[in-house]
C-alpha cells in the first residue's frame, strides 16, 4: 500500500511540467523578438505585393561581385600583416603587435 502511494505521489509531483512551462515561455518569447517581428513584416509585405521571396542566391549574389581578396601588395595600411613566430607558433599579426607580444617578425 505504501509503495503504491509513493509511486502515485512520484508521478503526480514530477518536475516535467516545469520543463514544459519553460518551453512554452521560450516559444512565446521567440515569437516577440525583433527578428521574428521583422521576418513577419517582410512576409506580410511580400504577401500583399504578390511577389515571391528572393532565393538565397539572389540575396548573396551581390556580395560575390564586390568581394575583394587581400594579397600582400593590396594592403593600404602602414603596418601590414606579417608572420610572427611566438612560443613555437606562427601567428599573422601587425608588426607592432608581434613585437609587443615578444615575437619574432618573419
Which helices and strands occur, and which strands form pairs?
Layout: H1 2-12, H2 16-31, H3 34-49, H4 56-66, E1 81-86, E2 89-94, H5 95-100, E3 104-105
Antiparallel strand pairs: 1-2, 1-3
Question: Could you describe the 3D structure shown?
Answer:
The chain is α+β, with helices and mostly antiparallel strands. It has 2 domains: 19-64, no CATH class; 76-106, no CATH class. 57% of the residues lie in helices and 13% in strands. The chain contains 5 helices and 3 strands, in the order H-H-H-H-E-E-H-E. It has a 3-stranded antiparallel β-sheet. A hairpin with a 2-residue loop joins strand 1 and strand 2 (89-94).
Which key phrases capture this entry?
single chain, 106 residues, alpha+beta, 2 domains, 3-stranded antiparallel β-sheet, 5 helices, 3 strands, 57% helix, flat
